[in-house]
Write a structure and sequence with these properties.
alpha/beta; Aldehyde Dehydrogenase, Chain A, domain 1; Aldehyde Dehydrogenase, Chain A, domain 2; 6-stranded mixed sheet; globular
Length: 336
């Protein structure tokens, strides 16, 4: 296959997903949720919309135009996939295959359905891809590794895969900056960055940096429309648990009935909780962000801003060139 053949196939996959009929979606949603109760129908719909957003031919062409990708000797690239949100490892799958390498992927036990479905559909579009990928229980006989996991598992990956060229990703989370100048619509859009996938993704906002005197009740009011998130019993159990811990221990916090806000310097908050921290001025904010640079996936804020990477409500729809951890996957694959 040529690069243009591969681009055309993935663009066709995006179109096929955008025209999925309701019956097919319902059947897929049932299978996905049966595998993982966090992956409800609404989350699957958002994940598929994110793939459609990504798999547009003009975007694919723009993305690859910055690389040579003249792979004369394809390598087998092992992919250790995460499973915190539906098809979270798809960008890596796409990158490996679009570059012209062969994919050997180990699925997460919490996301076994959607990646397989996507590859099955891709092969229906372009049968030559059938020989280019494999799902495996163990990543043996590979030439390179891309792995995503927790900080603890990353240490294991570093040890086990050290002899291979590799990208090892660790825990990251995302933050939002609020100055007080945001509109109600922007604060409401921030709710999507907080609540989509129940806050389980590395691009979910788990920490707020607030200008002094920012009116937190205004934020809670703007987020009221997301109260349906408590209908997920797993999310609500986390909310009840964290609320009870804060109440028993006398920990100051704000509560709107489904979200807890707690002042805390840490970056990663528990499910149903968002931490916040005040900053004095732009220099103070820059210093705080610099200290957490290696742990921040993306920064959400009002545009334009010297710190903005992502606008409100856009954190979970990254562009193809918004690489996880800021590591250019295609450069890595191009140089194997």
């Amino acid at each position: 296959m040529t690069l243009q053949d591969r681009i055309a196939a993935f663009a066709s996959l995006g179109k096929r997903l955008s025209h999925m009929d309701e019956e097919s979606f319902e059947e897929l949603a049932w299978r996905v949720q049966n595998n993982n109760n966090w992956f409800r129908k609404s989350e699957l719909k958002e994940a598929i919309n994110g793939l459609i957003f990504m798999l547009q031919e003009d975007k694919l062409q723009k993305w690859v135009s910055n690389y040579t990708l003249a792979i004369k000797s394809p390598k087998v690239v092992g992919l250790m996939m995460a499973g915190n949100i539906p098809a979270v490892g798809f960008h890596d799958m796409l990158s490996i295959l679009i570059a012209g390498h062969r994919l050997k992927a180990k699925l997460s036990s919490t996301d076994t359905i959607l990646p397989v479905y996507l590859m099955d559909e891709l092969v229906k579009i372009e049968p030559r891809f059938a020989a280019q990928y494999q799902f495996a229980d163990m990543l043996k006989e590979v030439d390179a590794i891309i792995a995503t996991g927790s900080d603890n598992s990353a240490r294991y990956f570093e040890y086990y895969f050290n002899k291979y060229p590799h990208i090892i990703r660790k825990n990251r989370s995302s933050v939002a900056i609020l100055t007080g100048a945001e509109s109600t619509e922007e604060l409401t859009a921030l709710g999507k960055d907080i609540f989509l996938y129940y806050g389980l993704g590395c691009r979910n906002v788990s920490k707020l940096y607030l200008a002094k005197d920012f009116p937190l009740p205004r934020l809670l009011d703007a987020l009221a429309s997301y109260e349906h998130i408590a209908n997920n019993h797993k999310y609500n159990n986390n909310y009840d648990y964290n609320k009870s811990i804060y109440l028993v221990n006398g920990v100051p916090h704000l509560d709107n009935g489904f979200l807890l806000l707690k002042e805390d310097e840490h970056l990663v908050s528990p499910i149903s909780v968002v931490f916040y921290e005040y900053y004095d001025d732009q220099n103070d904010l820059a210093n705080k962000l610099a200290l957490q640079k290696e742990k921040i996936q993306c920064i959400v804020a009002q545009k334009p801003s010297p710190f903005t990477q992502t606008g409100f409500g856009e954190a979970q729809t990254p562009e193809l060139w918004d690489y996880a951890d800021g590591v250019d996957t295609l450069v890595f694959l191009e140089n194997l």
